[in-house]
């Protein structure tokens, strides 16, 4: 049976493999970056109403900055991979499980980004080429899992906010985390915890994300929606 550390390391190795493949092909790398940039614009467009609300704006921004977009996390991931055993040893089990879900999402997202980039004829990504790229991959089940993992990260963070002692524990972890090279992860966890705590319940937020992402998923891969649905029409 795989240990939590081995599972997390496996996901990080998948991410590193995707990066090596892209490094060997500048054209593929450029197309992946174009996909990532469009996906960040798509999320900002789809959730512009949530981003503008006092209650949900910070959580939507957290998803936008941490789970979408073209940010380069290679240095963070390399540091992370070196200290996974320390992570498992130092952090509470609930936190380790959340990190495991995040790592699984990270790995799957990188694989899907590469697959989509392989469907592009060039570096231009708009609503039409984005839809064609998704449909060209034929990976509806994996897109559904990507949505499920995204929601699971949010649900985990929301659940952790209901454990009053955990926030204190996270504060106490700052020194050991810094010494172990886990400052970036520590910052992510504290930011996520505080953001979801401030919402005073994430059920409506996560329900909205689930409804919109599943509507887009169905529009992308359901043959009956080939001529376009409201979810596709609203793509930026």
Secondary structure layout plus pairing:
Layout: H1 4-23, H2 26-46, H3 48-51, H4 57-67, H5 74-82, H6 84-90, H7 93-117, H8 127-137, H9 140-160, H10 164-172, H11 174-179, H12 183-199, H13 203-221, H14 230-233
Helix pairs in contact: 1-2, 1-5, 1-6, 1-7, 2-7, 4-12, 7-8, 7-9, 9-12, 9-13
Report on the architecture of this protein.
This protein has one domain (4-233). The chain has 14 helices and no strands. 78% of the residues lie in helices and 0% in strands. Helix 1 runs parallel beside helix 7 and helix 9 (140-160) packs antiparallel against helix 13. The model has no long low-confidence stretch (mean pLDDT 85). The protein is mainly α and 236 residues long.
Number of domains: 1
Mean pLDDT: 85
Beta fraction? under 5%
Main sheet record = none
Provide tags for this entry.
236 residues, mainly alpha, 14 helices, 78% helix, globular
Short description:
With 236 residues, the protein is mainly alpha-helical.
């Amino acid at each position: 049976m795989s240990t939590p550390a081995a599972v997390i390391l496996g996901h990080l190795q998948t991410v590193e493999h995707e990066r090596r493949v892209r490094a060997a092909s500048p054209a593929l790398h450029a197309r992946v970056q174009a996909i990532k940039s469009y996906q960040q614009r798509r999320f900002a467009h789809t959730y512009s109403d949530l981003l503008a609300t006092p209650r949900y704006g910070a959580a939507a921004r957290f998803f936008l900055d941490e789970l979408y977009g073209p940010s380069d996390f290679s240095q963070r991931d390399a540091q992370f991979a070196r200290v996974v055993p320390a992570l498992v040893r130092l952090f509470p089990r609930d936190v380790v499980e959340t990190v495991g879900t995040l790592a699984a999402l990270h790995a799957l997202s990188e694989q899907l980004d590469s697959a989509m980039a392989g469907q592009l004829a060039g570096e231009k990504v708009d609503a039409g080429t984005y839809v064609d790229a998704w449909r060209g991959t034929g990976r509806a089940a994996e897109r559904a899992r990507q949505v499920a993992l995204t929601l699971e990260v949010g649900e985990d963070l929301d659940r952790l906010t209901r454990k009053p002692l955990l926030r204190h524990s996270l504060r106490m972890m700052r020194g050991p985390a810094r010494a172990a090279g886990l400052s970036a992860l520590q910052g992510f966890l504290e930011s996520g915890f505080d953001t979801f705590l401030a919402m005073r319940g994430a059920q409506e937020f996560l329900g909205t994300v689930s409804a919109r992402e599943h509507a887009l998923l169905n529009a992308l891969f359901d043959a009956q929606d080939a001529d376009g649905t409201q979810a596709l029409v609203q793509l930026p």
